[in-house]
Amino acid sequence: MCLHYLGEVYRLQSKYDEAITIYNTEQEICARIGREEGCANAFYGLGEAYRCQLQYDQAASSYNEANKIYARIGHDEDCVKALKCLQQIYALTGQPEGGANALCCLGKAYCRQSKYDQAASCYSEAQELFARIGRDECCANALYSLGEAYRCQLQYDQAASSYSEANKIYARIGQEEDCVKALKCLQQICALTGQHEGWANALCCLGEAYCRQSKYDQAASCYSTAQRVYARIGLEEDCANALYGLGKSYHWESKYDEAAGSYSKAESIYSRIGLDEHRANALYSLGLVYREQSDNIQARSFFSRAENIYGRIGHKKGEGLARFFASRPSRL
After folding, report:
1. How far is Cα 57 from Cα 44, in angstroms, rounded to an integer?
2. Which of 119, 102, 174, 167 is CA-nearest to residue 141?
3. I need a labelling partner for 46 at 20 to 30 A (CA). Which of 97, 176, 230, 243 fits?
4. SS3 assignment, position 82
5. pLDDT band at 100, cuts 50/70/90?
């Protein structure tokens, strides 16, 4: 403690080299005897002394070490103090990635103190910096954390928007587990706030994410719930799309009866509302289901019907594939 006060005296007298020597000695002693708070305070003092000498790299390193210890021992106010200094240095020296990382840590420190307004401001600024320098994963993580900060303040619209943007980035860069995490939060908010369409949309996106991970049971559960919600609120096209996704989930698990049932229901709706391409896709998928079961008569029938629709609407690729399988329905 006496050493720390002596370092402060030297620093206030602009005797920075002497202050640095004292703080280093204090840090070494505190580390040796397990005085974590004293160790963190010494690192913070070092950061202040180095900053006054414009030795910004050393200052940043010292503030960072101080923050780590403060966070570990639960001194959140001191975390904020160190992280503000760290973020200012990165801004001053033109290091946007370091600044954004410091802002994210600052956001976490504010969240631990239930200061969600300040946390949201930090995460928002961080995601803008990450977006500007092309750090997609970090940008998505900041958006997810922003959603968490908004949700804790019951600002559900802003939270939903943040989770949705995070999911889009996670999906683009192939971070499937993070997609699931963001989408679960999004669908929970939509369900909580009575946004039935948004809830079903999130469930369908969650189903897609599970399919990309070959988690077909979870995907089927999502699609099944989504189609019931769409049916209840009268969104026929979306209901059919969810049924088609449900069919794919069953299909990939070789649950042929369930797949055929879902594809058939989707095809019926598409037919009723006049979505020819979607109808042809459902018929084509039905052909694949029966082909994989070596039911050549059924397979040929569905492929032929799909071929006719594809031909009528000028979908050359679909027409060609359906014609090929209609003439060779058995699996090779």
Report:
1. 14
2. 167
3. 97
4. helix
5. very high
| DSSP-derived secondary structure for 23-81 | HHHHHHHHHHHT-HHHHHHHHHHHHHHHHHTT-HHHHHHHHHHHHHHHHHTT-HHHHHH
Q: Which residue has the tokens 């007298």?
A: 13
User: Residue 60: which of 21, 93, 18 has the closest Cα?
Assistant: 93
Tokens 């006054």 locate to 52
- CA triplet 51, 53, 56: central angle to 5 degrees? 45
- What distances in angstroms separate CA 197 from CA 111, 160, 224, one per listed residue? 31, 13, 14
Q: How far apart (Å, rounded) are the C-alpha atoms in residues 233 and 196? A: 8
248: tokens are 């794919």
pLDDT at 13: 86
Query: What tokens does 81 get?
Result: 């103090």
For residue 327, the one-letter residue type is: S
Name the nearest CA neighbour of 133 among 175, 173, 179, 100.
Answer: 100
Task: Look at the chain and count its residues.
Answer: 332
pLDDT in tens, 148-199: 999 999 999 999 999 999 999 999 999 999 999 999 999 999 999 999 999 9
First to last CA, the chain: 81
Rounded Cα gap, residues 142 and 105, in angstroms: 10
Residue from 131, 107, 130 nearest 117 by CA: 107
Tokens 């970090």 sit on residue: 138
DSSP line for 150-170 = HHHTT-HHHHHHHHHHHHHHH
Q: What angle do CA 20, 26, 27 make, to 5 degrees?
A: 90
DSSP class of 180: H
Reduced to 3 states, what is the DSSP secondary structure of residue 1?
coil
How far out from the chain centre does Cα 242 lie? 22
Contact 287, 310 (CB under 8 A): no
